[in-house]
Automatic annotation (TrEMBL):
It comes from Nocardioides yefusunii. The keyword Transferase applies. It comes from the Bacteria. GO terms for molecular function: methyltransferase activity. Residues 25-122 form the Methyltransferase domain. InterPro entries: Methyltransf_25, SAM-dependent_MTases_sf. The keyword Heme does not apply. Keywords: Methyltransferase, Transferase. One of its GO terms (biological process) is methylation. This is Class I SAM-dependent methyltransferase.
Amino acid sequence: MVLQQIPARIRWAVEYMDVQPNDQVLEIGCGNGAAAEVICGKLETGKLFAIDRSESGVDRTKRRNAKYVEAGRLTVRQIDLATLRVPVKRLTKVFSFNVNLFWSRECADEVALLHERVVPGGSVFLFYEASRPELVPDMVRNASKALQEGGFRVSIIEQKQPPVIGIIGKR
């Protein structure tokens, strides 16, 4: 089996999240499973629940992270966040990378679901590749507004190399 490389932007974002061994994490848009691989590598008693609307994304994540699925540390489902009923009652962290939901359309219901499930002191981490600078102001403004209106305290981080913008919502 060919080892798949973890992109620097994903590695940086997951490191910034500071995943702890007992965290309960929801990943929105798991794609090829790269972030799930890094997150699960940091978990011991914690769990990652990863979702994607794409069947191929779910399949790729399951294949790439089969050892974590088998160990019970990772659950992967094909579902949209709007219809998700999170099996974990209390999430410590929510993670997404390049998921346009939070800045490109109305998402009050999705943010309300996250606010209901994230523990006090827990966080939502929305990361975006900032390689198209013309989109960054809309990403920051719209995602920040959605999180603030949903009851989160928002902060913004920016990483130059690799170019990543993060909108962090703290409950």
